[in-house]
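are you around this afternoon, could really use another pair of eyes. what follows is a protein written twice so to speak, once as letters and once as structure tokens for the fold. i want to understand how the tokens follow from the sequence so walk me through it. anything you notice is useful, everything is just below.
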Amino acid sequence: MELIKILVDSILSQNIALVFILGMCPLIAISNNLKNAFWMGIAVVFVVTLTAAINYPIYQLLLKTNTTNLALLIFIITIAATVQFLEMFLEKFFPTLYNAFGIFLPLITVNCVVLAISLFFVNRNYNFGETVVYSFGSGLGWMLAIILLAGLRERLKERNDIPRGLKGKGIAFIILGILALAFIGFTGLI
């Protein structure tokens, strides 16, 4: 039951993008197309879950003492290696998707969501199972946010009644603000 609570909380009431406001750069940049947003969400779920699952035993077995700076360095190296692996995989097997991501795929390396989740499991004293569930749920929450944003942006593109100054990123920020208010409403759900 505790794992289900962690999963639901990480997707809704503790949504990494809409409650903690992390990962905004790729969220706004990739969210102008629903298909690209979906695949970027899949990539983030994969990277976040895998890096947290790798970082947990590294932290528990090697870094559990007061070595915060060393832990940060190791976490970042793990994240960079995982993203590099994903980038090579996509370039070889899904070249159109790789080209659609452009510069934003390597930006997952410096996406604060990926590092934040590795730091959150340390601060929350999660065990390995809780870490994997939390990181997977957080990735799903970020994916939900980017898909919702992309879907709404595509629908609004069809309309021509949005003021010129709000088109593009302006309306994205307004949508994100409204979504953030809605997701904060999930607090206390479970």
User: Anything to note?
Assistant: The mean pLDDT is 86.
